[in-house]
Amino acid sequence: MAALKMLPSFRKTPVGELKSQCRFLERSFNAFNPATMAAAREPRGTRTQLQEADTRIVAPNESGRALVALLVWDETDGIAEVIGDELDRLNYTPLLLRPYESIPPDVPFVFTFGPYGKLLEFLSQLDHLAPNDRPVSVHWNTEGIPDPRLPWFFVRTIGSQRSRADLLLFRLRSDRLRTLVHRFALAILRARMLRFRYVGDLYFAYRKGWIHVMGDTSQIYSQLRSRHGLPTLFIPWGVTAKWYANLELERDIDVLWMGKKATRRRSAILHRLRDQLRNRGLKVYMADNEERPFIFGETRIEFLNRAKITLNLTRTWYDDNFSRFILAAPNRSLIVSERLLPHCPYFEAGTHYMAGPADSLSDLILRCLEDEEGRSQIVDNCYKLVMTKLTLRNSIQKIMQAAEEKRTSGTA
Length: 412
Known about the structure:
The chain is α/β, with parallel strands linked by helices. The chain has helices spanning 15-30, 35-38, 48-53, 78-89, 119-123, 152-171, 175-183, 185-192, 194-208, 219-227, 264-279, 297-306, 323-328, 361-370, 372-388, 392-409, and strands at 66-71, 92-97, 109-114, 136-141, 213-216, 233-234, 253-258, 284-287, 307-312, 334-338, 354-356.
């Protein structure tokens, strides 16, 4: 539990904002008749619709390898692709399913991650099976939580109601009522309280027996959930072969930023830092989909091979953002970051990356660029770490070992 001790107290909780959200939730939920949930029919899109939409007939697995139904959130889901690759190398057969597709019978494992969409609607298919007939369901959480200074009972309560609201919409009998609710109350909820929904969804799915093995990319979040009734393994982000290459390009970009700004906090820091660095004559490439397009796949690998430094800034003060390390380190780009909580304690500031206060990162970046030998040493340290300990195969193997134990013992 050492990582939890790094979290600050509740003294600076934004009470006014919390009161506003509570009033909003109360008005939203009072608008619904609780009897609507009791009259809920079978979730839409889990049987007939899916059978019609799914044109891929699942043949019996003749290789003797266990099938894993792997959820693919959309057509550009690169994370599902690399998870599937590692499952294949671990002697499983991944079966890629979209959220609207049905889980075939007799599949021994279901693997979900994120969530990057409506997780409960997909997992609710398992409710139609007797508990002993269900596949072992694995979820690898990669998303954040609400402010950890908030009391957990408050987070659980609001998360439960937030999750219940989405389930209510999913199960409404009337398409017209569904449309009206979607356009108004829940449309606002979806935009404002996603992290509460993630908490509510995961606890609900665990309680219903739709998740048997839970992992999280953050050691802090895994300890927090485990302490509050949801056993969670620490499964860090890991390097995979499709995310790096040694292109031997000239390092002609001083500082690279990739990703959306997302929050006012990160946007303000990023704009100030970009202007400071450019005023000092440095070349800063902003792949933020505003100044320059986002970069993915081979394009991202190319830019990481050109960047001397990859910048890391978090959306909130407490976020787990170590996925960026897994992209930059194997391409030998130095990570310079604001100070971070120990979500992934394998990475040590000053040994594997450089870190400092957000308002003085420009000076730190200049020192790193001037000290080529020191920069090279830290890059080598980080490269060795991610290529040996922090591989995606190790992470997927760890969570699937837990799933195999559940399957063997019958405790699922």
